Amino acid sequence: MQHSTHSTSANAAPQFFSQAHHVIFDRSQVNQVAGNVNQNYFSQLSSSKELGLQRLYEAVSGLGALHDSQARFPPPKCQEGTRELILRELSDWIEADSSERLTSFHNRTGTPTIDPPINSTVPTLPMTELTPTHTSCDVRKPSEVKVHWLYGPAGTGKSAIAQTLCERYDRFGEKKHLAASFFFSRGDSKRNNPTYLFLSIAYSLATTCRDSALRAAIDKAVQEQPGIFEASLEVQYRQLIVEPLQSLSRLRRLRLPTLIVIDGLDECIVAEFQMLVLKIITGISNSNPFTPIQKISLRFLMASRPEPAIRDFVNQARFLEISNRTVLDDNHATYMDIKLYLHDGFSRIHAAWSDVSSFPSPWPPAGVLDELLQRASGQFIYADTVLKYVGEQNSYPPERLDNILGLPVSDATAFADLDTLYC
Fold first, then answer.
1. Which positions fall inside the Nephrocystin 3-like N-terminal domain (predicted)?
2. Cα separation of 181 and 204, whole Å?
3. Residue 288 φ/ψ, nearest 5 degrees
4. Paired sense of beta strands 178-183 and 323-327, if any
5. Tens digits of per-residue pLDDT, 190-203?
6. Domain map of the chain by residue range?
7. Residue 410 CB burial class (10 angstroms; 0-12, 13-18, ≥19)
8. Measuring CA to CA, how many Å separate 43 from each of 21, 222, 290, 420?
9. Of 314, 180, 318, 169, nearest to 241 (Cα)?
10. Could you tell me how far CA 153 lies from the centroid of its own chain?
11. By C-alpha distance, which of 247, 202, 262 is closest to 228?
């Protein structure tokens, strides 16, 4: 607390709260006027009020990178009944780690448990192809798979899957696996580079994991390193994330949520930034002594397009040893999911229309869904754009749908065709 006294005389005002104990002022200003004395008191957050976390909050507030940020509302999500196979695969990986950590704890404390899987050599995989590393014969423990890479071209639903998993596992109790999330965005100057990535993750770890020791460790790290906000990304990651986690007892670490979701790494506009993030997180580097990912309890779900820089990195042997991958392509399951998405979307538009008697019957006409599926070419974003255009307020849905069907089918992207509707 800072104070200034303009007079010290017999008429001076008495001290504030002279008999009080354990008083903490949080950003408060107190004025007292007595006789000829005017005392001004102004307090900043003291160390007992987490000055470090306050600084961290000020650095990342308004960033809009979290899965539940207002800036991303409404976020893309998987419609009920779609993407079930992929969500199940990723959920199995997420939940299996928690089960394994519980088994490890029981084994340490003498509680009878089933023997864990026997570890063996990771199967050798081709280095030049983007083939999934997860197979039925993959006998690695879940904790050994530290990164799951979800990849596919634009519009295939990567962000929707990432968002759905964030919401599913951001619940306290058995389902609380999410520790932090970060959604990159090419069009946002604060989210098209990794400047705030590790600051944001550190703040989420401190505030959402509900572990007082971890919270205190991160707060202390910021207070002891005033220049941490200007430090390199590697230093921020090590001092704000790795070292606070390593300072915890093993039992505390076992109880923590461990999932970090990073979506849209390809939306870092500089390829070198994409590579740097991957190097820091995994510890895989030929030149810098980054912290090996095996030394921390965190696991990362990373979603991106298979950009050249990212593709080159994830095809390294050392990355393959610690990772799995899932591709989003235009296979049969994807087509069926998009068809369900379109069907339910048109049903909602039809149900919301005040005078459905003016609609042709059936609507949409037979064969329309299949035609739209062909135009979508496996891209959920095409189907989503169609539904938004057809269901736009103050428009007539059948006419809007006819406009789309009247567009020529070209070799160009489907988005270019839809763009003409808004010109």
1. 141-305
2. 8
3. -110, 145
4. unpaired
5. 999 999 999 999 99
6. 2-44, 51-327, 332-422
7. exposed
8. 16, 20, 40, 58
9. 180
10. 19
11. 202
**Ramachandran area for residue 371 (φ above 0: left; ψ -120 to 50: alpha; else beta):** alpha
DSSP conformation letters of 289-307 = -PPPGGGSS-EEEEEE---
Q: Answer positive or negative: Cα dihedral of 291, 237, 322, 96.
A: positive
Summarised one tens digit per residue, pLDDT across range 302-348 is 999 999 999 999 999 999 999 999 999 878 788 899 999 999 999 99
Q: How far apart are CA 27 and CA 61, in angstroms?
A: 18
For residues 195 and 244, give the distance between their C-alpha atoms in angstroms, rounded to a whole number. 20
pTM beyond 0.85: no
Residue 184 near residue 191, CB atoms below 8 Å = yes
Q: In sequence order, what E strands does 1-141 have?
A: 2-4, 29-34, 37-42
The number of residues in the chain equals 423
